[in-house]
Structures are given as structure tokens and as C-alpha cells.
Amino acid sequence: MSNKIPVAVLASTGSVGQRMISLLDGHPWFEVVEVTASERSEGKTYQEACHWFLSKPMPDYVKNMKLLPTQASALQKAKIVFSALPADIAKEIEPDFAKAGMFLSSNASAYRKDPLVPLLVPEINPDHLDLVELQHKNYGWTGGIITNPNCTTTGFVIPLHAIDQKYHVKQLFAFSMQALSGAGIPGVPSLDIIDNVIPYIGGEEEKLEFEPIKIMGTMQPDSVKYHPMQISAHTNRVAVVDAHTICCTIATEEKPSVEELIDTIENYQVPDVTKTLPSCPKQAIIYHEEPNRPQPRLDRDLENGMATSIGRIRKDTILDYRFVSVSHNTIRGAAGGSILNGELIARRFFGM
Amino acid sequence: MSNKIPVAVLASTGSVGQRMISLLDGHPWFEVVEVTASERSEGKTYQEACHWFLSKPMPDYVKNMKLLPTQASALQKAKIVFSALPADIAKEIEPDFAKAGMFLSSNASAYRKDPLVPLLVPEINPDHLDLVELQHKNYGWTGGIITNPNCTTTGFVIPLHAIDQKYHVKQLFAFSMQALSGAGIPGVPSLDIIDNVIPYIGGEEEKLEFEPIKIMGTMQPDSVKYHPMQISAHTNRVAVVDAHTICCTIATEEKPSVEELIDTIENYQVPDVTKTLPSCPKQAIIYHEEPNRPQPRLDRDLENGMATSIGRIRKDTILDYRFVSVSHNTIRGAAGGSILNGELIARRFFGM
Amino acid sequence: MSNKIPVAVLASTGSVGQRMISLLDGHPWFEVVEVTASERSEGKTYQEACHWFLSKPMPDYVKNMKLLPTQASALQKAKIVFSALPADIAKEIEPDFAKAGMFLSSNASAYRKDPLVPLLVPEINPDHLDLVELQHKNYGWTGGIITNPNCTTTGFVIPLHAIDQKYHVKQLFAFSMQALSGAGIPGVPSLDIIDNVIPYIGGEEEKLEFEPIKIMGTMQPDSVKYHPMQISAHTNRVAVVDAHTICCTIATEEKPSVEELIDTIENYQVPDVTKTLPSCPKQAIIYHEEPNRPQPRLDRDLENGMATSIGRIRKDTILDYRFVSVSHNTIRGAAGGSILNGELIARRFFGM
Amino acid sequence: MSNKIPVAVLASTGSVGQRMISLLDGHPWFEVVEVTASERSEGKTYQEACHWFLSKPMPDYVKNMKLLPTQASALQKAKIVFSALPADIAKEIEPDFAKAGMFLSSNASAYRKDPLVPLLVPEINPDHLDLVELQHKNYGWTGGIITNPNCTTTGFVIPLHAIDQKYHVKQLFAFSMQALSGAGIPGVPSLDIIDNVIPYIGGEEEKLEFEPIKIMGTMQPDSVKYHPMQISAHTNRVAVVDAHTICCTIATEEKPSVEELIDTIENYQVPDVTKTLPSCPKQAIIYHEEPNRPQPRLDRDLENGMATSIGRIRKDTILDYRFVSVSHNTIRGAAGGSILNGELIARRFFGM
């Protein structure tokens, strides 16, 4: 019998859910014991209900698992639960899991703004997990809700933090070119994007302008104090399958040389508690020297899709510096990020 | 016999040259009497030498014209010359045409920075054509060189000027997503761009950071006084055939409401001398109210590819306003822009 | 007051409906007096209800027309009705219009197999319109139903007929690479087709294997006698916006040289009754000599999207000849085909 | 010291060469000891000279290897040589390597038609390696030249052979939709293929019509007796990065049911000598039951890119059966195929 931690995946047949199922195949700490889907699929096996769309084949372990309804009461065994729910359903039901004693690592946006819910990026703010104690105290939960940020925020926030730690970022102009997989399934109609760009993604700019200031905020006894930086964003959809590209222009308090900045980024060390988590990339930030990198197709799979690639660090003509960041939106920015968060939960609350 | 002005096209078989040939078909003022190409094609007919790639078929008038060498001495009849030359060759030979009395409307970047060469956008600065008189006086030319800006600059500079005229732009952050046709033929390899973005275009950001301040500068007796605005640019290549999309964030002196700004743009009137030129769009700037517009594939052909589309005008979180601009890079931003400049030349120097 | 024939468009806000509305703008014979849509849109103006997606802007004439319900009883004025209905609804309600005295030119597949309904391609079989008399006699209708073929059939059937007329086609292997617009709106998800091919289109191969034998059949007093040729098809979806490409391999009774075959195709004359219809292409079939043509993006707009492009006619190694055909699927293969059929109806039944 | 077989890669910095370098990283039998490139790169390290374009990073082992000139005399250590040379250079120099005692596994087309050179697919015809003995006898070589077929032939020839072995294929109509990586670097310009199809690939149809009859031929004492089947091909380029899709229609001697045919394919066993080669896929042919599979993006990476995917096996309306085949063109169809051939050479001539 396995002594792995039993875990569940909510909305396991969707776009992010499939990635979770795939990444959890052979996971050293976790064993998937329960999977849920919408009512329509309930009672079917995973294999029967799921229109699998990843190029890596569906793992054997999940094929014959029965799909459960997506309710806290339907889960009997899982201690950590990965949620790939849409925001509106997440809003309604995620607290039920926390009340019932489960630790929910959620990719949904529903509770990202809740002051007691950590917006967790283990490479940046593992201490924000302290908020879970406050959830116990203030909300009366025995489990907890932990969220990972939006895939586009994730795409640049680690190098941004690496810079901020040393030189204090004051302003950020972020401009994204986002992949189609970020819109889920069926997502963007092909007629809308072939030979085209869509310069608008509903609600996305607001997320980018808020999430980094919480993630990069300071843990205080009763809350996270938000980072004082200002953010302005333009978000766009382009004809790329996976990985978001973000152009960033920043103002900083201190003004190091470009070489010092590159050096800071290349030598960024993730917190010790995070370093040895199974899904933590060996190198969290990869700096590319070629003038035309990073690129989504060429760099998205580095470190199994968990690295952030960065390049073109150069002086700006108005503010201080400019750079380009690329990150895999459905791995690092969604399923992989949730699992990494689950690992940090496992370390803190399950002694791994 | 035609009483149209005889014109020539230099580098007529290339990407921009073909667009010129196509747009000059049936032109009310101009008759193409001479076409040139590189040595390799000399002596062949246009039809024999040209790998035509536009979806509109090759016009009949050009099919059997003999290709001449690209030298001023080879032209016997043309009074206005459209140049689709690459920058390095343009640098070397364009002055020869001006010396020989021809008026050169050039799409090449070679002389855009020359203080006596107009960087002309007839919707903005027709008075910069005064510089040609200074060319006569100072360079001893009897013709002249007139340039149009880079296709990406052209993509946002008309709405930027419409705003500036009334509210004075102080800062601009521009982020581009540029079409493949901007890189010419053969241009970007398909393996580099399918399912990908290239976040770098050599020399492009520098052009965007300079050209608007000259175009929007003030004509003074002996020179153009550059506009004092600051510009910062990120330029990117995306999988779009034609039309550049540019996200702009600006700071202005005055702070109108978004409605006033939209109103200013929608009611922008081009200068009187330009309004009746044959290629001048009826509506120079088209404002789109839908939140996800403009888009390159849907909006590039408005006003025969000569309009600038704009949308998403909204407040910024750091500076003052944000918007998205789309413009056809090989029509408005290259061949069509050159021809419109040629028409302004024809009006001023040939009494049309 | 206009003396044009009053016409209506059913399902006018969908993908094919929009093309019809656009092509009928300024039509010399027809005036759109009524437009219908699904119940959801009833009572709204066209402009309010329609998510317009063509790059050519929505025509002014239609913007403020009120959308009617899609029922024969709702139409008061139209004499000819263009139907862009989906097959299942067409099946149910199209006969109502014919009973009520209207002539329906339908793009739907519902009645294409009805032995008394012409599957009409005016360049091939205008005499099949005789079937309408049989509809009057046998079905008791005072109007009629006329259909145009599937967009992929349309893509090769005109050159096939040109060859057959002279050399008698016995067998056809057809392989298609079909555009995304053929799947309507929203149609194919972008994640399914970027960097991909889908080698299956439900029901499509069956249509290709039947429709040509009816279109190319012989009109007899009481029915159309089907053509005896055999057809085998593979159909595929590729990342092209508009225009289907079809590779054909054929066996013929007579064995002309390739030159004779090309000659036959280039000199194909459409029937006299068709030649002067307003939407009839001047040249129905355009032969391309370049070895790598026709291509969908370069050739789809020839003759305003109404021509069939053909190329690479060469000997086959097993049967007799091979060639490639390209045709605009939503113009020639759908909306434009319906309108051309409407024009033939107008000539025959309304004396135009 | 390693007791692996020392190998070299010719033209190691090109598109196929890079794939070879990548696939040979950590190979259990082979150690890359020498790499060559064109004169321009001679003397540089691999890292300096190579514009690496694979998403899997450049292996460490090759980074600091010095590039040698591409001549037999420049190699001192390699016993097996993998050739990614272009056909014209291969024609000229590949025999030098065989004369000098090296065994050349070549991806080039130059010697595929030589009657004494095996066109080797280890899953089909490992016995054709007998031809190398004839090379020794007749050409006086002490090494040998072994070729793998064109990537498109490879894409369908294994299932074709599986069928043929039991039911004897008489005719084949093959229609391909080929990936961009098949055209190498820089290859197809993006402007030629976005929103487009190119229905022509120079020389490709001839290869498809010849290669299977040699591969599936019978080894006789002095030569390979070609297979008597007839083949007709249409080849097309589509906007896919990797993997060719081929639609096949076949006539067979015997007429099994579709179920029997699927059964035959699913149970196809590769020859024993091949089964245990390190690069041999566990399952050579993977049958997909979903009606819309195989698809290039979803199925190209199965079995590390070495499997052939097949689906849609169904009756034909003219001949006997139809199906769709997908295979990774630069892995199975090029670099991976060459390496698998190298492994068969190693087994036969080096006792592995």
C-alpha cells in the first residue's frame, strides 16, 4: 500500500484538469484517488467522459477511475484537492472543501482577492502560507484554500520579484501576447485568430494589475501588506498554442547597470523551503542572451515547463529597464503551479 | 496621348514594389512609364522577372514593360519616382535621382533622418514639403527626396497626432505586434513563426522612438523643430499576413475625458491640401466601439487599406490613456503611403 | 420606386447569411426587402443582432432592417428567397416558402437529394431548372426549391464538367483540404487546428461522392438521369481561412494529351443563358501555369471569388490525369452560388 | 573509457543534423566523437556555429566539440557515420566514407535508387542489409552506404507493408499534407503558408511513387526485386510544424473485412532482429479509433516520435480500402530513421 498523500482533482476532464492529471502521473508524493467532473459525466469512467487533447497520452492510472460529482461531500479520501474549476463554480463550492478539512490548491480566480487566501508562488512568497492559520482562526476552516495566480501574472512575476528584492520596482508597464490554451476548450474560434490578433481578453488586465502587488506583498501578523508598485497592462491573444509572452518596462528605486540586473536574475535563488519540492525547477529563471529570445515555441518546455524564460534586458528610454518574459501558461501558469503549491502545502501541513 | 504625370517605380518586382505597381493601376494622375529591378532581371519583361504574390492579379499595363537598371541615368521620362529600394542601395543612389531633377517618393529608411528630407504623412505635416526648397538651396538638387515613415510608426502616428494637436502628448509607450509582410520576401521562415512569436525586430524600436518626433515636429524657416515627446517601444513579430497592431499608452498635458478623446479622434480633419488627393482616405481614423477591435484581419482593408483603425481608448492606471491601433503595413505603411506622398508632390510641384 | 425584384435572406446573420447580405449590396436585379433570424434576435435591427465578421463593412441598407422570424408567413414582399438555414431547420420549413409561391434558392443540404429539386450550377446545368415545373405538377407548389451544392463539390465540379463534356469522366479520386469558414461560426476551435490538420469532416465525403453525379446528370422529361461516374473522397480540414483546395485524379473514356485537356478547360464556355447573369464570372475556370498553383490565399478572390482556379494538370501513373482545384468556399461555394442561382431563377421565372 | 561505438554526424548543424545530435544524447550504443559542418563553420565549436532551433536544449556533450570539414579524410575515429547532407553533396562525397571503411547511415536521397544500396526500414526489410555485402564485392568498399527513405514515404510505408504482407497491395493513391520542417531551414517563407496551402513539392511525388516498391521488394541473391504495386501521389505543404499526414486509398489482392484489416495492423510484429534495437518503437503502428484521428499535433510524439499512427480505415467506393496515416517527419522520417538504421548496422557488423 502506498504511503503517498491521497489527492483529488476537481473538474479533471477540462483543459487545466487534464494537465493536472498528466503532471500527477508518477508523482513522488501524491496519489490521485478521486477525480470529479460536471454532472453530465458523473458515473462514467474518466476514459469514457474525457475528450483528451494533450499530445502526451492519457495516463493509465486514471483511465478507469469513476468520475465523482464535484462536491465536498462526494470525496472520501483526498487530503489535498487540486481545483481546475471555473471561477463562478469555484466561488460557490470551494469553501465547502476547506470546511470539510481538505486543503484546496486552486487554479480558479474566485478567492485570489480574499485577504486571507494566499496567492501563492513558492519561488516568491512561501511564507504567505501563514494565512492558512488565519483561515482556521477567522473562518473556522480545518483545511484551507490556496490559490495560484493567473497564468499571465505567473509569466513575469518571478523575474519581477528577483529584481524587486534587490532594486525595488516602482512601476510596471506589461504587454502580453497570450496563447490560445489560456482560453480553455473550445476557447477561441479558429476563424477569429488565424492571420489575426485579438487585442482584448475580458477581465485579464485587471488581474495583471492586482495580482503581483499581493504576491510580492509582505506577510504581516494579520494580513499581507500589498506591494506599493503601480502596474498598467495591455493583454492580447495571438495564434500560439501554449506559452504567454510578456513585454515589460519598469522603473526601479535603485539603478543598477544592465549587467548587474542580468546577474541578479541569473543568480536568483528560490527560498530554501521551495528548492527541494519535487516540481520546483532547478533553475527558476533562465536568461537568454540571443537578441530574439525567449520565444514561446522554443522556450516553453524548459525545466518541464516550470521555468520562466527572460531575455532582451536593456535600458528603457523613459523608465529604467525593459525585458521580455515567456512562460508555459497551462503548466507553470496553471496546473504545474497548482501542484507546486500542493507540494508546499504537503511540506507544511503533512510533514513531507 | 495621356496628360498624366509620367512616373517610375524603383525595385518594382519586390514586395513593396508590387504593391506600388498594383495601386498605380488606373491611377487618375499618374502613368507608370518606367520600371526598374536589380541587374539580374534587367532586359526581361516585368512579367518574366516578377514572382507576383498579391492576390489581386498583376495589372495588364505592366506585364510587357521592359525592366530597366536601377540608375538615375536609365530613366528618360519619369518626373516622379517611387522608390521601394532596400535602405543600403537607397543610401547610395537616391540622391542621383534628385540631382537629375526627379522627385523621389521613397519608402526606404535611408534619408529619413536627414534634416532636410521631409518624413511626410500628408494627413499630418504637408507643410514639411517646404524642406524640398531647402534641398534645392543647400544640396543643389533640382528634384528632391521625400520619405514616408516606417510602417509601424505609420500605424499609430495619425491618431497620436490627432490627440497631440489638442491635448499635447508628453510620453508614449508603444508595443507592436507586426505582420509578416513587413519583413519582405522571403522574409520570416515559417518554422520561426507558426505557433510562435518573435519578440525582436532589428532596428525597429529605434525607428519608432525617433520618427514620430520628426513627423509631428514644427516646420520652421530652416528646419523642422522636433516634437518634445518621449517614446519607448517594444516590437514583436506575430503570425499575421498584413497589418500591424500597436498598443499605446500615453501621458498628455491636458486631461480630457475618454469621451472627449474619442470625439477628438472621430472628428479629426486632415489638412485641406490633403483632403482631395486621390489616395487620401475619406475617413483617416476610424474609431471602433467594440471592446475587441480593431483587429488586423478584420480592419486592415478599410478605406482601401489607407485608414488607421483605433479602439479600446480607456484611462490608464499609471499614465493617462491607453488605446490600440491597427493599420495596413504594406498599403498605408509603405506603398500606399509613398503614393499619397507622390500625390502631394504632384499638387505642389506639378500643379495638380 | 425601385423596379428590382424584392428578395429576402433567411438566417441572415450567420456566416453564409452575412456573405449573402454583403453580395446583394448594390445588386442590379435584386433588392433585399426582408431579413430573418432565429427567435432570439426577432424584433431587433440587423445591426443590433448581428456579430458582423467580414472584413468588408456591413452594408448601410441592412443596418436598420428589422429581423423577422424565419417563417414563410412572416414574409410579405419577397418573391425570391435566399436560404442560409442549417440543414435540419431547412428540412422542416423550406417547403412552406415554395407552397406560398416563393422561389427559394437554398444553400442548405436538406433537399439536395430530392429527385425533383435541382442541384443547380448555372455554368453546368441550367436546364435542370425544368425540375421546378415538376415541383409545381407533383408537389403542388407555386414557387419552388432550388439548391446549390456543398462548397467542396462546387470547388471542382466545373472543371470536371468541362473535361467530362468532351472526354467522359469515368472515375474520380478527390482529396480535399478545406477552409475553416466552411464550418461556420464558431466552428473549429483554434486549439484544434493551429499547427495541425483534422483528417475528417462529418458527412462531407458522402456529399462529394453523390453531388457531382446529380449536377452532371442529364435532364430528362420526368427526372434527372444521374451521371455514371464513380467517386471516392478523402476530406480534411486545414488552417486556411477561406477557399477549399481539392486534388483530383481521374479516369476518362477518351485520352487526350495534357495540352488538349488544358485547352479544353481554358476554352470552356458557360451556357449562353448563364453568361450574362450579373454574378457569372467572365472566366469560369482559370488555368494557372505555375507548378505551385492554384493556392487558396492567392487565388480565391479571382473574379470576385466566383472563378474556379485549376492547375498542375498532368498525367497520372495509375489512371489518366491529375489536377488541383481551388475555389472560394463561402462565395462561389455558398452565398455567391445561391445568388447566381437566384439570378437564373429571375431570368426564367421573372423575365430578367 | 566508453566501450560504445564511435560515431560521427555529417552536416550536424542543419535541421536534420540537430535532430540527430539530440537523439544521440545518452544513446546506449553510440558515442558521438566527430561532427562536421560546411567550410564556413570549420574550426568553430558546435555551440558557436549552430543556430539551435529545437525546443529540447542543445545537449552538453556537443557544445564544445570542434566542427570538422565534411570529408572522409577528416574523420579519424568514427566507425558509423550519420549523414544529414543535402542530396547534391551526398552524391559527390558519400562513397568516400564507404571506401574508407565507414558505414554511412544516410538520410540523403542521393543513393536511394542505387540497386546495391539498401533503402532500409528496419520494421520492414532488415534483410536488405545483405546488399552491403554486394557493395563490398562489386564496389570494393570496406564500409557501406545505407539510406532511409523520404520522410513522406516513411509516413505510410509501415502500415502499407503490414497490410501487404497478408493481403497484397496492388494499387495505392497517396495524398499528403506535409509539415514545414520537411523543407529544412530556412525552408518555406511564412508569407507563403499562413492562411494557405501549397499544392506542390518539387520531386516529392516521384519519390513516393518509387520508394515503397524498393522498400517492400524481395531480397534476392544479387539484388532486390521490386514490389509490383502501382502508386500515384499528390503532395502538398500545409501550415504544420512537424509530422506529415497522408490519406491513402488502396486496392488489394485479398479482400478482408475492415475489422480483419484493423486487426492485422494492430497486431503487426516487427522482425525479431529489429524488435530489440534501442530506438525501435514498442508499438510500431498505433491504430486510433476516434473518427478524427490521427492528427499531426496530437499524435506525432507517440513512442518518442518513432511510431506510425493510423486511423479511419474504411471501405472505399472505387478501390478496396481507405485510411489516414501520420508520422513525425524529422524523427521517424529522418534523424530517428537514420539512427534506427545505424543500430541495425551495429547489430549486424559490430556485434551489438
Describe this structure in words.
4 copies of one chain form a homotetramer. Chain A is α/β, with parallel strands linked by helices and 352 residues long. Chain A folds into 2 domains: 163 residues, 3-Layer(aba) Sandwich (Rossmann fold); 178 residues, Dihydrodipicolinate Reductase, domain 2 (2-Layer Sandwich), CATH 3.30.360.10. Chain A contains 12 helices and 14 strands. In chain A, the strands form 3 sheets. In chain A, strands 3-2-1-4-5-6 form a 6-stranded parallel beta sheet, sandwiched between helices. In chain A, strand 4, helix 4 and strand 5 form a beta-alpha-beta unit. In chain A, helix 1 crosses helix 12. The longest helix of chain A has 19 residues. Chain A is globular, with a radius of gyration of 20 Å. At the B-C interface, helix 11 of B face helix 11 of C.
What structural class do helix, strand and pairing data of chain A support? alpha/beta
What is the number of helices of chain A? Answer: 12
Query: What level of helicity do the residues of chain A show?
Result: 25-40%
What's the overall average pLDDT of chain A, rounded? 96
Strand content of chain A: 15-25%
In angstroms, what is the radius of gyration of chain A? 20 Å
SSE order and pairing:
The structure is a homotetramer of 352-residue chains.
Chain A (H helix, E strand, L loop, with lengths): L4 E6 L4 H9 L6 E8 L8 H4 L10 H4 L3 E3 L10 E4 L3 H13 L3 E4 L24 H9 L4 E4 L3 H17 L1 E10 L11 H4 L10 H12 L2 E2 L4 E2 L4 E8 L6 E9 L5 H9 L5 H4 L9 E4 L7 H4 L8 E8 L5 E7 L3 H19 L3
Parallel strand pairs in A: 1-2, 1-4, 2-3, 4-5, 5-6, 7-10, 12-13
Antiparallel strand pairs in A: 7-11, 8-9, 11-14, 13-14
Helix pairs in contact in A: 1-12
